[in-house]
Design goal:
The chain is built from 27 helices and 18 strands. The protein is an alpha/beta fold. α11 runs antiparallel to α15 and α12 runs antiparallel to α14.
């Protein structure tokens, strides 16, 4: 008997209601066998449909390798709900079935925890009496100080653990920025609050843990910084990425960088302010930093000068004027274009100054930490100064990363970096922002994770588009792994018996006759909705959803909740459950948020209506660039991008119906293209084998 089957037998003995499914065992053994492969070959991708029980499958498939090889098992998810389920339910139950229980902990980024030192500074800040502070700012400052005092009191009395997510009240984002910190602004062991610090309490727990539950953003941030800063080094980790279909998009967000003018002006002011305090704070090292001060007094004004030059060049461009006047949004700018050519010299000058400032402030941060450790510097001065030095170091380090992307020349043989502009609000002011990012996250993921990690499992209920892993494989940088690394586990559901798929006869098409189709949707909903059951109606457009709702009869609207109204999606689901449990009918009109992450088993959802095929709309600059690259290489964006994406989205939307093996119900799709278009028939062929009904 294999180790996996032995583990499942133990689980079945400990949990009388549990019976391991063949698909679950198949997934688990595939993972366990793959973890025995040589280094850099321990990467597996598993599509496990709803009902397989993938959480227990990947836990049983990875835990023994992790324990035997003394590696940390890091489980990463995309949603808070799944993290809480792992910590509160799945891991405690799984741990109880093992010969020796395992230690596990949930880890979030440092910014999710209060910094007691900064909280104390804010709570004890005297109100500014200066004349140049306006009434609104003064009022905001008074509110912040009052709330900081309350938070400090609650934390000291152990009525709050310092975790932002554990609070029921809302903490103002500007205040939280003041009372939390990042690694550069942290004094570590030298801080007077070190032993009681919420973040370092977590770090001590993490050191002893065999399993860490995290989220994709935290892992990608750590990887972006080289790995090993928040989590152990990737070489010491066996990763499981649950909800892995979200990973490519999130990785692209992390890989892209931006130059924000107002943020840089403010950071340069902070740097100058810090510079005035350094001679007295570090008086005992004065012989060490004379040259640094003279260089920084030269570099900081030069940064302002370069930024002003860059802004001036941008403002003289017609595209930027159109952006500022809101005629366009997020226009792309291209390598070798007159605008980018004009920006190159001032950007190179800014990069040179940024490198110098980053280097010097890194040294200053090191000296402040040493001064605190050796008590050459008072805690009060050091803890107040360090976050400011850290902010300067952080922002200029980020600027260096941006410039590496922005100034990298396009190459014919590889996808070029994408450059674009936007207007954002920062510190309550509008500012121009220059963005630069890779077209694909494939290289970033392969370089920082797949090539380094001890082992990797990527899993989700839906990873294949049109029955193939091809798109996911490309987007995740998994092209060097052959089919032996991929597994699609069959579903445990009997789709033919459990669900019907109805495609009514529709006269109009949503992409060609939208107004007529919209009116036809209203009529069809009136005909097919049973007001006594639980119905989920999915739309791809907020405008269409609201227009359809307005035209529906009162019998339907009286029991319908519309996404974007007064209730949050979570509260909509809660109210829907209460309605159904009380024996009444309930209808949800929802968008993407309801097409993917909602779990309404049994009688909580017996009819899913998909109004339109969920084709992705590629409007973002990186998406447009990817389409152009595919065309340049002789491909077709519709076939390469749109069809696989709509296939995944359609399967996910249909998947809202059956959540357990005992569930049943019906799916209705109000889009005749499934039957009339060649691609529609392809999409239909790759849906689960529902019992098909046509009008």
């Amino acid at each position: 008997m294999t180790a996996v089957k032995t583990l499942f037998e133990r689980i079945e003995s400990a949990m009388p209601d549990f019976k391991a499914r063949p698909q679950q065992i198949q997934m688990s053994e595939f993972i366990a066998q793959s973890m025995l492969k040589p280094p850099q070959k321990r990467v597996v991708v598993v599509e496990a449909p709803t009902g397989v029980g993938k959480t227990l499958a990947y836990l049983t498939g990875t835990i023994q390798t992790a324990l035997l090889q003394k590696k940390t098992l890091v489980i990463s998810t995309a949603t808070v709900n799944l993290q809480q389920q792992l910590i509160q339910k799945d891991l405690p139950q799984f741990s109880a079935t093992l010969e020796e229980p395992i230690r596990f902990v949930q880890v979030k980024g440092r910014r999710r925890y209060v910094c007691p030192s900064k909280l104390n500074q804010t709570a004890t800040t005297p109100e500014q009496q200066t004349l140049n502070i306006d009434v609104d700012e003064k009022y905001q400052q008074v509110l912040h100080i009052a709330q900081a005092k309350q938070l400090m009191s609650e934390w000291e009395q152990e009525r709050w653990d310092g975790d932002r997510d554990s609070r029921r009240d809302k903490i103002d984002a500007d205040l939280w920025q003041q009372i939390s910190t990042d690694s550069e602004g942290c004094a570590g062991k030298s801080c007077s609050f070190y032993m009681r610090c919420p973040y370092y309490k977590l770090r001590r727990e993490m050191t002893a843990a065999q399993v860490i539950v995290a989220n994709h953003d935290l892992i990608l941030s750590d990887a972006d910084l080289g790995g090993g800063l928040v989590l152990p080094n990737p070489e010491e980790i066996l990763f499981v990425f649950d909800e892995a279909h979200n990973l490519p998009r999130k990785a692209l967000d992390h890989a892209a960088k931006a130059l924000n003018f107002i943020q840089l002006y403010q950071t340069t002011e902070t740097a100058d302010s810090v510079l005035k305090k350094i001679p007295s704070a570090l008086a005992y090292r004065q012989h060490d930093f004379g040259y640094m001060l003279s260089e920084l007094r030269r570099d900081l004004p030069a940064v302002i000068s370069h930024l002003q030059t860059i802004e001036s060049i941008l403002h003289s461009d017609a595209v930027v004027q159109d952006l500022l006047e809101k005629h366009i949004s997020e226009p792309r700018i291209f390598w070798n274009s007159p605008l980018v050519n004009a920006l190159l010299i001032p950007c190179q000058g800014l990069l040179q100054r940024a490198n110098s400032i980053y280097k010097h402030y890194s040294v200053l941060a090191k000296w402040i930490k040493e001064g605190l450790e050796k008590t050459q510097l008072s805690n009060k001065v050091g803890e107040a100064l360090l976050p400011q030095v850290g902010t300067v170091q952080n922002i200029f380090g980020y600027l260096i990363d941006f410039m590496a992307l922005f100034l990298e020349p396009d190459q014919e043989d590889r996808p070029p970096n994408v450059r674009w502009l936007s207007v954002d609000t920062f510190a309550k002011q509008q500012t121009l922002v220059i963005h630069a990012g890779p077209m694909t996250a494939a290289y970033f993921l392969d370089r920082s994770l797949w090539s380094r990690a001890y082992g990797v499992v990527l899993t989700s209920a839906t990873l294949r588009g049109l029955g193939l892993f091809h798109r996911f494989r490309l987007d995740c940088g998994l092209h060097r792994f052959d089919e032996q690394h991929f597994l699609a586990v069959p579903s445990p559901f009997n789709y033919q018996k459990q669900a019907t798929l109805h495609i009514p006869d529709m006269r109009f098409q949503p992409n060609e006759q939208q107004q007529q189709w919209q009116q036809e949707v209203v009529k069809k909903l009136t005909d097919i909705i049973d007001v006594n059951e639980a119905t989920l109606v999915l739309f791809t457009s907020k405008l269409v959803m609201e227009a359809v709702y307005r035209q529906c009869p009162a019998a339907i609207t009286a029991i319908t909740m519309v996404q974007g109204d007064s209730l949050s999606p979570k509260n909509m689901v809660n109210r829907h459950i209460r309605q159904i449990e009380s024996g009444k009918g309930s209808i949800i009109f929802g968008l993407d948020r309801f097409a993917e992450g909602v779990d309404l088993p049994g009688h909580l959802c017996t009819h899913v209506i998909i109004t339109k095929l969920p084709f992705p709309v590629f409007t973002r600059p990186i998406e447009q660039a990817k389409q152009e690259w595919i065309i340049r290489k002789g491909g077709q964006p519709f076939t390469a991008l749109s069809l696989p994406a709509v296939s995944v989205k359609l399967i996910q939307a249909c998947g809202r119906l059956l959540r357990k093996e005992t569930d049943s119900g019906r799916i209705t799709i109000l889009d005749k293209r499934l039957l009339t278009k060649g691609y529609g028939k392809q999409l239909l062929a790759h849906l689960p084998d529902y019992q098909l009904e046509q009008s």
